[in-house]
Design a protein that fits this description.
heterotetramer; A alpha/beta (249); B mainly alpha (306); C mainly alpha (328); D alpha/beta (377); C: 328 residues; mainly alpha; two-stranded antiparallel sheet; 13 helices; 4 strands; D: 377 residues; alpha/beta; Rossmann fold; 2 domains; eight-stranded mixed β-sheet; 14 strands
Chain lengths: 249, 306, 328, 377
């Protein structure tokens, strides 16, 4: 078995009396999609924030390609190849699609301290941004202002921006949320095609997408991972059924 | 320095602080409930002082002057809210700053238009003028004690209003969640006008009370406005408790800094130079205090954590 | 009424060149002085617009840099004129009367102070940022008032304008040419900066800090650098303003001036290249025209500003082009 | 900022008069914002004298500086470059004067100061074209010091704002006060609450208080001092006891001794006529500033009788002669073109319903200033 690209070891995070993350250890291996599911309030977002650097865990570590990145800031983790998408699209709504994609390219290529040449005219930035947009199917929307994109297209752009970073690992926070069935299908296909580019840690509510995509699934309940396994194993797990359906099941 | 003098200076700082609180409370309430930066709050302070001076001058009664100050400031506040401010709640802070800056210009020159360029007269009523002797032999102006009393009473009253009444519940709801109060079936625009008028009335009251021992003149509101902003930023914007603590901190820092820094500098400087450098640093004191607080806690002492 | 923004920009530049030339022919030197004032204020506001319009930071204390620029000019020229030494601790200088040197010093010093203020202020955001920058402005203001060595509240007079190689700066038209050239350079640099990767990242940092971090960039560093550049440009404007008046005083540090700079930008249009320029021209013209009509012209100025906020979101450029500007 | 007031010209003859005007006077003064009252008084006093002269060949261009130094400098550029005035006047504040005057007089314009008299312009920075018709800044403070000495005070507590005019004020007082200081305090410029300083006065062993707190600061101090119950005698310069300000202080100022080169009860025919005509014209009692504006205009008129400004040397001599009837009686210029005049001690009294001043003695006779020796002219 190959080494995991992303790994958390016994992460703990409390808010007051509430343990939002309780000894969570999960990993992500090359070429796989690892889905994290769980009921509302299970601590999925808190977990993602700790992985990406938005929250500091009380205890435990995060490893990226074998390196302990627990003390790194968000931007350092991003530069090391940890790309993420947001649950609520965090795009620059006043800017065009291409400009948004360029932002990722600028970050990845360390170009933010270039002051003179135009961002839109530098070939290496532009090629990278355009390649990513083509990958997510937005090649015809370069000049569209983000604010006028549909919900599904915004999700595609989120993924595209993550791709401009040439990621080693993708972390996606509910990419399917709020998009229709058609969009969902399109996005599922897109994600499916990405697993060889970079493995995906996928937090998702849409069970159809999860079972269609995930190689492994972890179930998070009250901050604890109660089960990890293949789609089939999770479907039949007693613990999961109890957690989802209540004690009487 | 004798301890009696120190106690007297602390009283002075306290009195300055509670008057700042009257200004800051309205400012912080308006920001907390409506999310509005109101630079024109100082103008309402001025309106209160001018109304008090005009009415007290005409009737000879300081008390009527105070009533007039409350009414005039609340009325001016309500009008301004309905005509202008109401359109700014959803606007960016930048637009709010500009619009209320424009209101300052209109209020200041408008007041000069009506009342002329010279300061007006407003005096303390005889019954509460002059000094009293406090335990320990401190002679202290009675009026300043009254100011401290009124300030504390208003603080308690505000606390009761917000914690114990229906309007208070609505105000708190408005601070936490603007959509929520609409859902509760509360008439938001009425609530906003009311809160704005309340803040304005407090500013007007402060203007009238302070006007009796200071100069009632055009432009008197701006220095106080800046201080009140310092207060609410130190306390945490939107927090009445923060405004109270911040006001006392600023009042004490300003008063005691002005007195003791020059004394401190005299320990290692020639007297005249110590006086000048000491008071120069003291005039920057509250801004330094504010800078330190914000570096330590970027949202103030009692502000909501980001 | 929808007009092309480029057309407006061209018109403004043409006006800024044409009016002083006309005044020169008509022998109306004061008109040139007035336009020069507008150009310098535009330069100061253009500096502020970098952080306000593109970076989303509402600095209510930008007069700090205006004042630092002014005092740098004042102090250097004062020592040069009186042949006294200026002891800077590490070394001593005799001051200078050369404008380019003064500009460099003004920009350098403003940049250093901006770095310091930015480091502390950028820990906060929103209203707190507005207020902490205001607090820094007040600190400098009170310091300048009691700085007896350089005139305190009386300020410092430099009776003769400083020198620029090959020009007679006392001629209003020549001094105007210097200021106008600097404004054009700064606008050009600003246009390049806005289109550059840095500008794109800064603009993104205004809209979504989290997104910028996720792209591997530090919003704080982007904003800090923008703050420093912005401070340096406003500092340059301060040095020119001092030379225009041949005088500096603590009023250059006042919060009213910080407010006026913001007002200029909003009148013209936030985040627009020419916003501050149009704002400054309109403001100076209003001051001049309204002041001639009534003593109480502030009332009318206030009413005009109010209507711009309420009815012309995006400032005059927004009104003319039919597009709102950046949201701050 | 382009208000033209035409001296003594009928409005109907506006165009004709403009064309006729031979002599152009530029007045930069404070007419809006804080401190506008002072500028308005200077303007009104000045224009009253011009009107009374009946001369139609004098055009006065009046501009409002808003008390901002940079605006004042621009207006000065405008008056000199565009209006091409021969004579300038009007500035109230020392910091504005320092910004405007040196540049103006170096462009061959005459400047007559109706109010500010900063020390550099009296000493090393004096200029042949600069005439001060009010006082050198230290004068009234020096007189206050002299009065305190004469009144037998030994220990004064003195305070002023922490800015150049404040330091000058305390220095001026100390120059003529022979006793010791019980305390010396610099307050913040624009300060409105003096509780802390008053407490210090109470705790000191002072036998008298001297303060220089112009404008609203003085009003605040006096009200708070009166309420504090301290009954030490107070001395100050006239600025805080002027006609406009007294009405905002009322009883709190009663009995305070202040020093002034002018008072409405100075007994001479010019002054009596001035007080009467000013009241008739504007419906209020004239102030110190109004008298200074009036005297400035009369000095100008007297010089114009003898020479035209175009003949600079002759006109300068005519100004230097100061051959006019001043509202304050004897008036002449010292070698640095600053007044040599008597400064009185006045007491605040109530006259009917109106609070005003009454002369109680002379503080300094034929007083010049401390900087004249530095003036090389």
């Amino acid at each position: 078995m190959s080494e995991p690209l992303l790994e958390t070891r016994t992460l703990v995070k409390s808010f007051g009396a509430l343990k939002a993350t309780d000894n969570v250890s999960i990993d992500l291996r090359p070429g796989e999609i690892h889905a994290v599911i769980g009921p509302n309030g299970a601590g999925k977002s808190t977990l993602i924030e700790q992985i990406c650097g938005g929250l500091v865990p009380d205890a435990g570590q995060v490893f990226l390609e074998g390196r302990d990145v627990s003390a790194w800031r968000t931007q350092a983790r991003a530069r090391a190849g940890l790309a993420r998408t947001f649950q609520i699209s965090a795009l620059c709504m006043e800017d065009s699609v291409l400009e948004n994609a360029l932002l990722g390219a600028i970050g990845a290529m360390g170009a933010s301290w270039r002051f003179w040449s135009g961002a839109l005219t530098r070939p290496e930035l532009r090629e990278r941004a355009e390649a990513a947009l083509e990958r997510v199917g937005l090649e015809d929307e370069h000049d569209t202002q983000c604010a006028s994109l549909s919900h599904g297209e915004r999700r595609q752009l989120e993924v595209g921006m993550a791709l401009t970073l040439a990621p080693r690992v993708l972390v996606m926070d509910e990419p399917m949320a709020g998009i229709g069935a058609g969009g969902s299908k399109k996005l599922t296909e897109l994600l499916d095609s990405l697993r060889e580019t970079a493995p995906i840690l996928l937090v998702e509510h849409d069970m159809d997408a999860v079972f269609a995509l995930a190689d492994r699934i972890s179930v998070l309940v009250y901050g604890k991972v109660i089960a990890t396994g293949s789609a089939q194993e999770i479907r039949t797990s007693r613990a999961v059924r109890e957690a989802y359906l209540g004690q009487e099941a | 320095m004798p301890s009696l003098l120190i106690i007297e200076q602390i009283l002075n700082g306290l009195q300055f602080g509670v008057m700042l609180f009257l200004m800051a409370a309205g400012l912080t309430l308006i920001f907390g409930v409506m999310g509005l930066i109101n630079l024109a709050h100082g103008s309402l302070y001025m309106v209160g002082a001018f109304a008090a001076a005009a009415v007290a001058g005409a009737t000879g009664s300081f008390f009527l002057g105070l009533v007039a100050a409350l009414v005039a400031a609340a009325f001016a506040g309500a009008i301004v809210e309905i005509v202008v401010i109401r359109r700014l709640y959803k606007a960016a802070h930048l637009d709010q700053v500009l619009a209320t800056f424009a209101l300052i210009l209109i209020f200041s020159e408008g007041t000069r238009w009506v009342f002329g360029s010279f300061p007006l007269f407003l005096d303390i009523p005889d019954a509460i003028s002059g000094p009293v002797t406090l335990p320990g032999g401190i002679e202290y102006p009675l009026y300043r004690l009254v100011l401290i009393g009124i300030g504390l009473a208003v603080a308690v009253g505000l606390w009761a209003l917000i914690e114990r009444t229906r309007i208070g519940i609505q105000i708190r709801a408005g601070e936490n969640d603007r959509e929520m109060i609409a859902a509760l079936g509360i008439d938001i625009s009425k609530l906003y006008t009311l809160v704005f008028a309340l803040g304005a009335a407090l500013a007007g009251l402060a203007g009238a009370l302070v006007g009796a021992i200071q100069s009632v003149q055009v432009g008197m509101g701006e220095p106080v406005l800046i201080l009140a902003f310092v207060v609410i930023v130190i306390g945490g914007i939107g927090s009445i408790r923060g405004a109270f603590v911040g006001a006392l901190l600023v009042g004490l820092t300003d008063t005691l800094g002005g007195v003791f820094l020059p004394e401190l500098f005299k320990l290692f400087m020639e007297a005249g130079a110590a006086q000048r450098s000491g008071s120069a640093i003291a005039s920057m004191g509250i801004y330094i205090l504010m800078g330190l607080v914000l570096v330590w806690r970027p949202t103030g002492l009692f502000g909501a954590r980001a | 009424m929808i007009v092309n923004e480029r057309a407006i920009n061209a018109l403004v530049i043409a006006g800024l060149v044409g009016l002083p030339l006309w005044a020169l022919v008509m022998d109306e030197p004061f008109t040139i002085t007035l336009v020069t004032r507008a150009v310098i204020l535009a330069l100061a506001a253009a500096g502020l617009n970098i952080i306000l319009g593109f970076g989303g930071m509402v600095s209510f204390g930008h007069a700090v840099f205006f004042g630092i620029g002014g005092y740098t000019m004042g102090i250097l020229a004062y020592h040069a004129q009186t042949y006294t030494a200026l002891d800077l601790g590490a070394f001593t200088t005799g001051g200078t009367k050369s404008m380019p040197l003064i500009w460099l010093a003004a920009m350098g010093l403003s940049a250093i102070v901006a770095l310091f203020i930015g480091l502390l202020s950028l820990r906060t955001s929103g209203v707190y940022f507005i207020m902490i920058t205001l607090a820094f402005g007040q600190m400098f203001y009170y310091f300048a008032i009691s700085w007896a060595q350089y005139g305190g509240e009386d300020g410092l007079s430099i009776y003769v304008r400083n020198d620029f190689p090959g020009l007679n700066t006392l001629q209003p038209i020549q001094f105007f040419a210097i200021c106008f050239a600097l404004l054009c350079i700064v606008l050009f640099v600003k246009a390049r900066l806005t289109a550059s990767p840095f500008g794109l990242a800064l603009n993104a940092a205004r809209q979504s800090g989290a997104r910028v971090e996720t792209a591997g960039l530090s919003p704080l560093r982007l904003k800090l650098l923008a703050f420093v550049i912005s401070g340096a440009i406003t500092g340059l404007a301060g040095a020119l303003f001092a030379d225009l008046n041949r005088f500096v005083s603590p009023s250059m540090f006042s919060w009213q001036l910080s407010g006026e700079l913001i007002v200029l930008i909003i009148i013209g249009g936030v985040g627009r290249l020419m916003g501050p320029v149009i704002g400054a021209c309109v403001y100076v013209a209003l001051e001049h025209v309204l002041g001639g009509i009534t003593e109480f012209w502030h009332v009318y100025l206030g009413l005009i500003l109010l209507s711009i906020v309420l009815f012309a979101r995006g400032g005059l450029i927004g009104l003319l082009t039919g597009k709102e500007g950046a949201h701050v | 900022m382009n208000r033209r007031v035409l001296g003594a010209a009928a409005v109907a003859a506006l165009c004709a008069t403009t064309a006729m005007a031979d002599i152009k006077v530029g007045m930069i003064t404070t007419l809006s914002g804080g401190g506008a009252g002072l500028g308005i008084d200077v303007r009104d006093g000045f224009m009253l004298a011009i009107a009374q002269s009946g001369r139609e060949d004098i055009e006065v261009v009046i501009e409002d500086d808003q008390r901002k130094p940079d605006i004042a400098v621009q207006l000065s550029d405008k008056l000199i470059q565009s209006e091409r005035v021969d004579i300038m006047t009007g500035i109230i504040w020392s910091n504005l004067a320092m910004a405007v005057v040196p540049a103006a007089v170096n462009q061959d314009v005459f400047y007559l100061s109706p109010n500010a008299g900063p020390s550099p312009l009296a000493g090393a920075g004096c200029h042949p074209n600069y005439f001060n018709v009010a006082w050198q800044n230290d004068n009234l403070h020096e007189a206050a010091g002299a009065h305190a000495t004469a009144a037998g005070y030994d220990r004064s507590f003195i305070l002023a704002p922490n800015y150049p005019a404040g330091t000058d004020a305390l220095t001026g007082y100390k120059r003529f006060f022979d006793g010791d200081l019980a305390g010396e305090v610099y307050t913040q410029l624009g300060q409105t609450d003096y509780a802390a300083e008053i407490a210090q006065i109470r705790a000191s062993d002072a036998d008298s208080v001297f303060f220089f707190l112009p404008g609203g600061m003085g009003i605040s101090f006096l009200k708070q001092y009166a309420d504090s119950g301290i009954d030490l005698p107070v001395v100050g310069p006239a600025f805080s006891f002027d006609q406009g300000i007294l009405q905002a202080v009322e009883e709190a100022a009663l009995g305070v001794v202040n020093t002034s080169q002018w008072s409405k009860d100075i007994d001479n025919p010019t002054n009596a006529a001035f007080v009467e005509s000013f009241q008739a014209e504007y419906g209020r009692l004239p102030s110190l500033y109004a008298s200074q504006g009036f005297d400035t205009a009369n000095l100008l008129l007297s010089a114009l009788e003898r020479a035209a400004p175009s003949d600079a040397d002759a006109f300068r001599e005519a100004l230097r002669a100061a051959d006019f009837d001043s509202t304050r009686g004897e008036f002449s210029f010292g070698p640095n073109h600053h007044p040599v005049q008597t400064i009185y001690a006045r007491e605040v009294i109530k006259e009917g319903d109106v609070f005003t001043n009454r002369i109680i003695g002379t503080a300094l006779e034929n007083h010049s200033d401390a900087y004249a020796a530095d003036c090389k002219m």
